[in-house]
Design brief:
The protein is an all-alpha fold. It contains three helices and no strands.
């Protein structure tokens, strides 16, 4: 933490969240500003074009991963 570690927020207990839901994912995608994309090259503007069916599928995948499932082979790297 170097010289500024004393200024960083330290959570007293580990942060836990429940399984990802399609509604949470939809809301998160919709509220993002149209800025630079991620490692995979997908920009926020492009992600807002995802269909509801795809958002539901992605939320199910992320929920399975949150509960211990392995990442699919093709999704481990951007």
């Amino acid at each position: 933490m170097g010289n500024f570690g004393q200024h960083a927020y330290r959570r007293p207990v580990p942060w836990r969240s429940g399984p990802c839901t399609a509604e949470q994912l939809w809301h998160t995608i919709r509220k993002r500003a149209d800025t630079a994309g991620g490692l995979g090259g997908l920009t926020p503007k492009e992600s807002k074009l995802m269909s509801w069916a795809f958002i539901q599928w992605l939320a199910r995948l992320l929920a399975m991963i949150q509960t211990g499932a392995e990442w699919p082979d093709g999704a481990e790297y951007a």
